[in-house]
Design brief:
The complex is a heterodimer of chains A (151) and B (104). Chain A has 151 residues and is α+β, with helices and mostly antiparallel strands. Chain A contains 4 helices and 4 strands; from the N terminus they run H-E-E-H-H-H-E-E. A 4-stranded antiparallel β-sheet of chain A has the order 1-3-4-2, with helices on one face. The chains are: A alpha+beta (151), B alpha+beta (104).
Chain lengths: 151, 104
């Protein structure tokens, strides 16, 4: 009995670590020209914006509400919830990269950040990455850049 | 006869799983040079089991790999592609770059 409890405890801890640690998703990679230098100093820039999975959270909430409505035998309430679900699905229709954020201006400061980290302006081997870190119902939408600054 | 059909079906399924399906996510290019005598190519990849990918740092190995192939020149006209190969319970993320080494 104690052994089973210990085993379950380990499984729970592993599950918690997996649940809490983010999963990374890669959307786009771009490599710029690589100059004939000894690569210079590495500069890393990361800009991000938090996104909420409103659709996912609402779908979970609606599923719970729908189940309760069915349990209570109220088909009218279940129909209303199904209608709300349809409106939500149609409102979120369309192609996208990652989860929608409230503002997409977070990447506008990329050049300012590059200039601040490399005042000489001589940068080579720029690798631009669009990625995301995903958590339950939340994600960090990230634009990251790595380059080599020649001082 | 029945066992032959089953065997063929099994071989087909195994073949389909092992060959994988591919998805192309992005393609980008930089300015193309007129001198294209020395092409260079580099590839980095990462095998991900289910969705357990905790970072994308493997992409940063690509630039040094290109640099190594053109130590005294400039790599330009770089075409970068990011694609995914899907396997059973896993997928491989592949980033490839092809360019041209210009030496002066």
């Amino acid at each position: 009995m104690k052994m089973i409890q210990s085993f379950l405890n380990i499984v729970f801890k592993i599950s918690l670590v997996i649940f809490l640690s983010s999963c990374a998703q890669l959307y786009h990679v771009q490599i710029a020209d690589v100059a004939k230098t000894d690569r210079g100093r590495v500069i890393d820039i990361k800009l991000s914006e938090t996104a909420f999975d409103i659709k996912g959270a609402a779908a979970t909430g609606l599923a719970i509400a729908k189940r309760r409505a069915v349990e209570k035998g109220s088909s009218q309430a279940a129909d209303n919830i199904a209608g709300a679900e349809l409106i939500l699905a149609l409102s979120n229709y369309g192609p996208r990269t990652g989860l929608p954020v409230f503002t997409d201006k977070y990447s506008d400061y990329l050049l300012d950040e590059i200039v601040a980290k490399c005042p000489s302006g001589q940068i080579t081997g720029l690798t631009s990455v669009r990625e995301a870190r995903k958590y339950p119902y939340i994600s960090g939408e990230i634009v990251s850049v790595r380059g080599y600054c020649i001082d | 006869m029945k066992s032959y059909v089953l065997k063929s079906f099994l071989v087909f399924i195994v073949g389909a799983y092992l060959s994988g399906c591919a998805a192309l996510h992005s393609v980008s290019m930089t300015s193309y040079p007129t001198d294209r005598r020395k092409p260079v190519e580099a590839k980095v990849s990462k095998l991900v089991f289910l969705a357990f990918n905790f970072n994308n740092d493997f992409v940063h190995d690509l630039t040094p790999k290109l640099q190594q192939q053109c130590p005294n020149g400039k790599v330009t006209g770089i075409t970068s592609t990011y694609e995914t190969r899907f396997y059973f319970l896993a997928h491989r993320m592949i980033v490839k770059s092809q360019g041209f080494c210009l030496t002066q």
